[in-house]
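User
Please review the sequence:
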Amino acid sequence: MKHFILRTLAHLLLLPLLLASIVSGCVDGSQALEQVSSRTTLAEKGAPRLVEISPGLHTVEGGLAGFDPGNSSVAFHLPAGPPGPLVLFIHGGGGGYDNRNIMAAIHGAGIAVLGFDAYRMNGFDRPSGFWVRNMTYEARQRMIYTTSLDAYRWVIKQPGIDTRRIHIYGLSNGADVAANLAAVVDPAHVRTVFAEGIAGAGLGLPDRLVVPLRAIFGRLDNFGGQHAEDWRWQRRVSCRLNMAGFDGPPGNAAACNSQNNPGSRTQSPGNWAEAQRARGADIETWFYEDGAHGIFTGPLNQRTMAWSTGTAHASVGAQEATRQQLLADILARISSAR
């Protein structure tokens, strides 16, 4: 009973952060409440479980799952012929369904692919709308990061692929995860990290990259924006939205979270990429005309969408010519990075 009362008080004390996050323009603005779990997750054991921290909004607590190659969500496809490169796909906030089209396109070009659903790895089977609208950023990203890092460790030991030519592709929340992986993977294995639609909020972005990174944005990507030209690569939100105590590579969230500089704003994904480039990192930003968020998710759809915090812009997809250009650029990079 004592623990229940203490946790309830913690949730109530963090409600002002929820209001601040709504004003800041973050899609699931209530992600500020992630600090509830950043402390308790480390202290608690047992299976992962969803915890409602405000009406309709959840975080995850307990131990998080690694990668299980036998999980029904796993898609691992090798082309015929000698061992070649592989692309490890990391899904976004909506789950493994996010990457189905681009995985098919890459595999169709004769490249090995590995994908999975981190939520299902953790024993959760909910529709994608639940994860997008009813989970905090940090909860999604912690699950995805834990499973993705373990998937990378698994795949570099597999026969049938050239383990010196691994590429990682992350979308949306998965792009932030992929960027953090670009700070911890072994350059002897990973040739490129592709990060499409980085949010720059939740876990934060790493201080130092050890492998090349290509940040990808559709020119029409306003996903989660408060107005039609609230472009994702330019967006800065309240530091209160960043997780404190992320168990990953050092990054910009350490000095920008609810405990440190809560009144400041996060570094935009575009500025982060520029800072990395100035430090000598092999990083490029690729922009695509007539593309929005999730270029391979379907036809271009410039729309708004309702979240628990209100309505925001949420343009997705792209014109077919844009998808083909992105595919050509990815394949060219894979071919050249030997």
Confidence is low (pLDDT under 50) at residues 1-44. Residues 2-61+68-336 form a domain with the Rossmann fold fold (CATH 3.40.50.1820). The longest helix spans residues 137-155.
